[in-house]
């Protein structure tokens, strides 16, 4: 399958990153380079883009897509944005004009059956964005204690039937390991009452999301990564974050709101004692959502939410 990345909220990303010829931009979630290609069109020939991704398949596809640009205009790194400080230091960068996070799993990863991300295909339970890491979805499903499975499915999947699903997983694996996506789907369907299965989309959607997040450590790395990113922005530099579910967006909102606050002294003090100054200015209150036209053209964009802030 060709690795084609249809970038979500592309016009909005370009607008809010405020890219111009000569800008230095970090794409922390490169994917197939859909956003990166459009950014390079705006910032070259004088600008520079650094793209980061865990997936070697995505990196190889991105190199092909970006081949028309000068090799001095961009660099692609296999890595995790949780290591942003090290990656940017190793690249010899000091300050940048824009940083983009387009969170979650890519459409191509979902559509490649062998990656095990999707409940639509029968495949080994994998779900690793970085196929070099050891922990897989099969490890989570077959080795985590029942109470840990409940926590993951409840907190990361926001699944009301987490207790029942975890209990049936534990019961099923006593007989033999759960190895494939369809085996897990059958267990989830058995755990959710028939009436509940008939509404709210595919019954396995939330549980698969939860296990994927656990396998890749997606939520736990966000707060530090966002705060690290802000440190690298020049004054006037922009941070743009696209999230696809409430857990990701909640972390983005908390970090941006916190870094946009000034004095936090108790009310009534005649002078500020804390000395705190805001680091960010919120550019858009709330979130930017895809237009109905974009959703019609790309249904997977429907859940996307964009937040943007500027370094003071």
Strand tally is 7
- Tell me the strand order in the biggest sheet: 3-2-1-4-5-7-6
- Low-confidence stretches at least 5 residues in length (pLDDT < 50)? none
Largest sheet: 7 strands, mixed
> What structural class results from the helix and strand content?
alpha/beta
CATH C-level class of the largest domain is Alpha Beta
Distance between the termini: 44 Å
Describe the structure.
The protein is of the alpha/beta class. The protein has 2 domains: 10-104 and 219-311, Vaccinia Virus protein VP39 (Rossmann fold), CATH 3.40.50.150; 119-216, Putative methyltransferase TM0872, insert domain (DNA polymerase, domain 1), CATH 1.10.150. Helices cover 41% and strands 14% of the residues. It has helices at residues 10-17, 34-43, 56-65, 84-90, 107-111, 137-143, 146-155, 162-175, 181-191, 194-197, 205-216, 222-232, 246-259, 292-297; strands at residues 24-27, 48-53, 74-78, 96-102, 233-243, 280-282, 305-311. The protein has a 7-stranded mixed sheet with strand order 3-2-1-4-5-7-6, sandwiched between helices. Helix 12 (222-232) crosses helix 13 (246-259). The radius of gyration is 21 Å and the shape is globular.
How would you briefly describe this protein structure?
This protein is α/β, with parallel strands linked by helices. It is 41% helix and 14% strand. Helix 2 links the parallel strand 1 and strand 2.
């Amino acid at each position: 399958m060709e690795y084609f990345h249809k970038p979500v909220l592309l016009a909005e990303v370009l607008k809010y990153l405020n890219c111009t010829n000569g800008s230095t931009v970090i794409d922390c979630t490169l994917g197939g380079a859909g956003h990166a290609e459009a950014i390079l069109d705006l910032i070259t020939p004088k600008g520079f883009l650094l793209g980061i991704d865990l997936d070697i398949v995505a990196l190889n596809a991105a190199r092909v897509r970006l081949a028309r640009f000068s090799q001095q205009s961009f660099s692609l790194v296999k890595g995790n944005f949780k290591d942003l400080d090290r990656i940017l230091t190793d690249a010899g960068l000091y300050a940048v004009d824009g940083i983009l996070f387009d969170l979650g799993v890519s459409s191509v990863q979902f559509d490649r059956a062998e990656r095990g991300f999707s409940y639509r295909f029968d495949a080994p339970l994998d779900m690793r964005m970085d196929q070099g890491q050891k922990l897989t979805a099969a490890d989570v499903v077959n080795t985590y204690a029942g109470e840990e499975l409940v926590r993951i499915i409840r907190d990361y999947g926001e699944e009301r039937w987490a207790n029942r699903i975890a209990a049936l997983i534990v019961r099923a694996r006593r007989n033999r390991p759960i190895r494939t996506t369809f085996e897990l789907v059958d267990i989830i369907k058995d755990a959710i009452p028939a009436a509940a299965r008939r509404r709210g989309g595919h019954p396995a959607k939330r549980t698969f999301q939860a296990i994927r997040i656990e396998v890749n450590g997606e939520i736990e790395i966000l707060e530090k990564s966002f705060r690290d990113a802000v440190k690298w922005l020049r004054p006037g530099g922009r941070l743009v974050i696209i999230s696809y579910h409430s857990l990701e967006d909640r972390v983005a909102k908390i970090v941006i709101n916190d870094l946009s606050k000034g004095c936090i002294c108790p009310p009534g003090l005649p002078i500020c004692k804390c000395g705190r100054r805001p680091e960010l200015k919120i550019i858009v209150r709330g979130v930017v959502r895809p237009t109905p036209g974009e959703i019609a053209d790309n249904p997977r964009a429907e859940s996307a939410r964009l937040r943007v802030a500027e370094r003071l």
